[in-house]
């Protein structure tokens, strides 16, 4: 994937027609225009109206006008991205945006659009890794964002993932293309914005190649995580699901942790904190008598002992 907008789009080959997730911001504007030029009549845009900011209506109007000019059909989806207690507002907005984009592809244009492109770029990838490090994330966090993946019958693409953020803005300026600046991008209350405003300039100075080297590390982490997932799948075949406690105990502690993480994620969309997982592993190790009970909070539910096995139960009031 080359490091210019034109180079990246030249080597991008999704199935057509293609949808572009279009916020109206710089990056998705560049992506939409470049794709619309490459595939006239074959590109659609989806804008998610978040309703979070008073400015959301004007974002939608801008997107509608820009799409009319480009001759690109636009679908607008409204979401209520209020976050649940304990959930970060950014996370809630991201989840509801992905759900809305999925619904748009399934319901608009007769279901003919199966591929969608997002406009995250190389700086976003570095920010994602630094954000993961700042939260003490494991390999899945450090693996950051994949360039391509499939879910719900849709293929998602990030064709600009190797293009530096400043190169995108330069391209827009050279091409005299307008975009809207989201005022929340300058809000220092968000960790991501602090990373962008303070850390990235320092990295640029100290390590001019930081985008490439961080991307290589993300690739290594993603590959290592793939191996761990393969081992976890094999181990879960042996323990069964939900996992049998005796079978789990035959594995090393690190493999137990790896298998339990995959079980919780794959079957219950639950992720255990480091402390919850450590407690669960201690309890599994101590579980040597019939009467030993286990009940540990994990994510939005509990892991408990049920006979010879672990079982997961959702908290009665929890929603995903
Ligand atoms: N409201 C939205 N509607 C449709 N797609 C969106 C919206 N917000 C973000 N996206 C898509 O998700 C990608 C990542 O979103 P993120 O919030 O990280 O970036 P962004 O700063 O909004 O990007 P951009 O510069 O394109 O506005 C965007 O590049 C865009 O493709």
Descriptive overview:
The protein has 12 helices and 9 strands. The protein is an alpha/beta fold and 320 residues long. The strands form 2 sheets. It has a 6-stranded mixed beta sheet, sandwiched between helices. Strands 7-8-9 form a 3-stranded antiparallel beta sheet, with helices on one face. It is elongated. 31% of the residues are buried. The model has no long low-confidence stretch (mean pLDDT 93). Adenosine-5'-triphosphate (ATP) is lined by residues 21-23, 25-28, 46-48, 50, 97, 118-120, 124.
Largest sheet: 6 strands, mixed
Q: What series of H and E elements makes up the topology?
A: HEHEHEHEHHEEHHHHHHEEE
Q: Separation of termini? A: 35 Å
Helical proportion?
Answer: 40-55%
Low-confidence stretches are none
The Rg value, from CA coordinates, equals 22 Å
Mean pLDDT across every amino acid position: 93
Percentage beta strand? 5-15%
- Output the structural class: alpha/beta
Give the strand line-up of the largest sheet: 3-2-1-4-6-5
Count of alpha/pi helices:
12
Outline type: elongated
Count of extended strands: 9
CATH class of the largest domain: Alpha Beta
Write the layout of secondary structure elements.
Layout lengths: L4 H6 L7 E4 L4 H13 L4 E7 L6 H15 L3 E5 L10 H19 L7 E3 L4 H13 L4 H4 L5 E4 L2 E4 L7 H10 L16 H16 L3 H30 L5 H5 L3 H16 L5 H13 L8 E4 L2 E6 L2 E6 L6
Parallel strand pairs: 1-2, 1-4, 2-3, 4-6
Antiparallel strand pairs: 5-6, 7-8, 8-9
The protein binds adenosine-5'-triphosphate (ATP).
Adenosine-5'-triphosphate binds next to helix 2 and strand 2.
């Amino acid at each position: 994937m080359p490091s210019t907008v034109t180079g990246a789009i030249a080597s991008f080959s999704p199935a057509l027609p293609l949808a572009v997730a279009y916020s109206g911001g710089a990056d998705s504007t560049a992506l939409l225009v470049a794709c619309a030029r490459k595939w006239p009549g074959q590109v659609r845009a989806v804008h998610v109206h978040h309703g979070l900011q008073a400015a959301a209506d004007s974002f939608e109007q801008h997107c509608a006008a820009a799409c009319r000019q480009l001759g690109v059909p636009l679908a607008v989806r409204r979401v209520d991205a209020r976050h649940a207690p304990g959930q970060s507002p950014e996370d809630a907005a991201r989840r509801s945006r992905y759900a809305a984009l999925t619904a748009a592809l399934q319901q608009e244009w007769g279901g003919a659009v199966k591929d969608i492109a997002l406009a995250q770029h190389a700086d976003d990838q570095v920010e994602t890794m630094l954000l993961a490090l700042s939260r003490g994330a494991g390999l899945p966090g450090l693996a950051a964002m994949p360039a391509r993946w499939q879910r719900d019958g849709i293929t998602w693409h990030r064709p600009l993932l190797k293009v530096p953020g400043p190169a995108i803005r330069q391209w827009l300026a050279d091409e005299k293309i307008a975009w809207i600046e989201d005022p929340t991008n300058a809000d220092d209350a968000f960790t991501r914005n602090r990373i962008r405003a303070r850390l990235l300039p320092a990295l640029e100075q100290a390590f001019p190649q930081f985008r490439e080297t961080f991307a290589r590390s993300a690739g290594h982490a993603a590959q290592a995580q793939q191996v761990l997932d393969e081992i976890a799948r094999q181990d879960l075949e042996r323990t069964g699901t939900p996992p049998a406690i005796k079978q789990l105990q035959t594995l090393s502690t690190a493999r137990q942790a790896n298998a339990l993480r995959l079980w919780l994620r794959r079957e219950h969309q639950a992720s255990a904190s480091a402390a919850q997982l450590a407690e669960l592993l201690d309890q599994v190790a101590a579980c040597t008598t019939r009467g030993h009970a286990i009940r540990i909070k994990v994510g939005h539910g509990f892991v408990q002992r049920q006979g010879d096995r672990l079982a997961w139960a959702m908290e009665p009031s929890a929603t995903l």
